[in-house]
């Protein structure tokens, strides 16, 4: 018990720059209090003391603002930051090293009793503030759920889900990217640069448009050069089609307009 508590305090000190001491974490962090109470309630639930387990979980909800069903399974070093309004359903499973921010719901979409109705979070998943993860699917290891996302389908390992309904953005899983992410440190709130799907779509449109503009610019340059050479030749002579052109279109300028 004390070993798990020490792990929980250590992970909060690691992930929250506002945490200044172990004593502060132990006495002032509702996410830690909710997890400790949940462990007690979960033990009661597994032993068949269902009413007592629910009673303990209700006290935890009253004291912390975090509602964790005693049937839910939590891994080691789970960090619930701020925590107000977090709801975790009965069949939810949360892996080791996960981070959950305020207002998150790990909910179900089925009314079938005994079925797997709530999501499973893999190891190291980050769920941003006010996100809703609804259904009995799996969010893969290392995945991130952006703030206010509504996720209703599986998320692959290492991917990011953003928007409503959530769209999955696949990350490149290679050693170089992992090393760079490790150097950057912990990603608070599951936010990364360039995850906005609207921005990604705009960039794709700009790239496509810039290709067309480039071709048009080359055609006009070729026409102007051939016209100038035609004026220099005697009437009736043919102009050899060997005009050399250079690109004059500035695609980067358009990219900067939407940043």
Characterization of the model:
The protein is of the alpha/beta class and 259 residues long. It folds into two domains: 2-195, 3 Solenoid (UDP N-Acetylglucosamine Acyltransferase, domain 1), CATH 2.160.10; 198-257. It contains seven helices and 15 strands. It has a six-stranded mixed β-sheet with strand order 3-6-9-12-14-15. A five-stranded parallel β-sheet has the order 1-4-7-10-13. A four-stranded parallel β-sheet has the order 2-5-8-11. β14 and β15 (167-169) form a beta hairpin. α3 (30-46) packs antiparallel against α4. The longest helix has 36 residues, at 197-232. The protein is elongated and about 105 Å long. The relative contact order is 0.07. Residues 173-178 have low confidence and may be disordered.
Question: Kindly, what is the distance between the CA atoms of the first and last residues, rounded to a whole number of angstroms?
Answer: 50 Å
Q: How do the SSEs run, as a string of H and E?
A: HHHHEEEEEEEEEEEEEEEHHH
Give the second-level CATH assignment, the architecture of the largest domain.
3 Solenoid
What is the topology, as strand order, of the major beta sheet? 3-6-9-12-14-15
Q: Could you state the oligomeric state of the chains shown? A: single chain
Number of helices: 7
- How large is the radius of gyration? 28 Å
Number of domains: 2
Q: State the CATH superfamily name of the largest domain.
A: Hexapeptide repeat proteins
- What is the overall silhouette? elongated
Q: Give the C-level CATH assignment of the largest domain.
A: Mainly Beta
């Amino acid at each position: 018990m004390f070993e798990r508590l020490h792990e929980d305090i250590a992970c909060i000190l690691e992930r929250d720059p506002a945490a200044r001491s172990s004593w502060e974490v132990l006495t002032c962090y509702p996410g830690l209090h909710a997890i400790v109470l949940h462990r007690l309630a979960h033990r009661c639930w597994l032993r068949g003391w269902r009413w007592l387990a629910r009673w303990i979980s209700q006290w935890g909800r009253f004291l912390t603002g975090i509602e964790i069903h005693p049937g839910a399974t939590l891994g080691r070093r789970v960090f619930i930051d701020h925590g107000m309004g977090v709801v975790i359903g009965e069949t939810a499973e949360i892996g080791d090293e996960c981070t959950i921010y305020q207002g998150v719901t790990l909910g179900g979409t089925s009314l079938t009793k005994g079925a797997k109705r709530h999501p499973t979070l893999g190891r190291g998943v980050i769920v941003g503030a006010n996100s809703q993860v609804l259904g009995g699917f799996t969010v893969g290891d290392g995945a991130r759920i952006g703030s206010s996302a509504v996720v209703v389908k599986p998320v692959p390992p290492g991917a990011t889900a953003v928007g409503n309904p959530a769209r999955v953005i696949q990350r490149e899983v290679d050693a170089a990217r992992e090393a760079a992410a490790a150097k950057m440190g912990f990603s608070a709130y599951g936010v990364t640069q360039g995850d906005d799907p609207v921005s990604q779509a705009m960039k794709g449109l700009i790239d496509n448009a810039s290709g067309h503009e480039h071709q048009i610019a080359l055609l006009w340059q070729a026409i102007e050069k051939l016209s100038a050479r035609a004026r220099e030749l005697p009437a009736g002579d043919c102009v050899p089609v060997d005009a050399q052109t250079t690109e004059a279109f500035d695609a980067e300028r358009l990219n900067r307009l939407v940043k």
